[in-house]
Design a protein that fits this description.
With 283 residues, the protein is α/β, with parallel strands linked by helices. The protein has a single domain, classed as Rossmann fold. It is 38% helix and 20% strand. It is globular, with a radius of gyration of 21 Å. It catalyses: ATP + H2O = ADP + phosphate + H(+). GO terms for molecular function: ATP binding; DNA helicase activity; double-stranded DNA binding; hydrolase activity; telomeric DNA binding. Pfam families: Ku_N. InterPro entries: Ku_N, vWFA_dom_sf.
Length: 283
């Protein structure tokens, strides 16, 4: 009986999620955040928000916290980071201005330290220039960035229960001057949705980018209803770390199954096993 119990225990499959952070590196992401005071002020070492003065720093710190939370709560989940709009490129397809910072993997101390360095006020710019180049590019293709994400999911050595892409951007219409690139990006987003890959967008506002209109582009990417569009456009994008993390966690935790358990009804008349999987949720 003990042997049978062990066999049954091994059949329980723990849920494993995969999350890719797709981060825009447009010049506006390096401007002061919308919530920053325009006049010069002394930075309080105890005020984390005061030290995160740009959108890029804010997102890097949010990714760092996301990794840390994974180690504590779901250390088997996989996470990765892709940047687009960089001068340097690093990906399997030789796509221009797309840089894979972290492949899909379990979070590690090394990755967390790297993200901390990319968010700290005193060193983030030198670290950025060293890795990604000293200038930001505009000739990227969001379609190619999404394709890169899809490829990382396809090549994952682990079976993933949920696959999601979190887009951090300050640009509500990334291909406004190129309808072909815009159409390709929307089609790629639809293709990802068709194969069960979830997309979510987190707007980042700066002192020159003061409004984010989902209707221009991302309504089609996220396939939002008119009601959902109104809700999104009426939400005030955040420039504070805790508020951004709250939004990220709210999207990350939805529809998460804790594990799946095989359930057997015996055998059919022809001897075929009658089995199905039951998902267990932590409410």
């Amino acid at each position: 009986e003990a042997h049978e119990d062990n066999q049954q225990g091994r059949q329980i499959t723990t849920s494993r999620d995969g999350t890719l952070m797709l981060i825009e590196c447009a010049p506006q992401m390096f401007e002061p955040l919308a919530n920053q005071m325009k006049q010069d002020s002394v930075i309080d070492d105890d005020d984390e928000d005061a030290q995160l003065t740009t959108g890029f720093q804010l997102v890097m710190r949010a990714c760092q916290r996301f990794y840390q939370s994974k180690i504590i709560s779901n250390d088997k989940d996989l996470s990765g980071i892709i940047l687009y709009g960089t001068e340097n490129s690093l990906n399997a397809f030789d796509f221009k201005h797309i840089y894979i910072l972290h492949e899909l993997a379990q979070p590690s101390a090394e990755r967390i330290i790297q993200l901390e360095n990319l968010s700290e006020q005193s060193r983030y710019k030198s670290k950025y220039d060293e890795l990604f180049g000293s200038t930001q590019a505009t000739g990227y293709s969001l379609n190619e960035a999404l394709w890169t994400c899809s490829n990382l999911f396809s090549n994952s050595p682990q079976r993933l229960t949920i696959k999601r892409i979190f887009i951090f951007t300050c640009n509500d219409q990334p291909h406004a001057s190129n309808l072909t690139l815009e159409r390709q990006a929307k089609q790629r987003a639809k293709d990802l949705n068709d194969v069960g890959i979830e997309l979510e967008v987190f707007p980042i506002l700066t002192q020159t980018i003061i409004r984010f209109d989902f209707k221009k582009f991302f309504q089609d990417v996220l396939m939002l209803s008119d009601e959902d569009l109104d809700i999104r456009n009426n939400q005030e994008p955040t420039g504070r770390l805790n508020e951004l993390l709250k939004l990220v966690y709210s999207k990350e935790h939805k529809k998460r199954a804790y594990c799946t358990v095989p359930f057997s009804l015996g055998k059919a008349a022809d001897g075929t096993p009658l089995e199905f999987s039951v998902s267990v949720y932590n409410m």
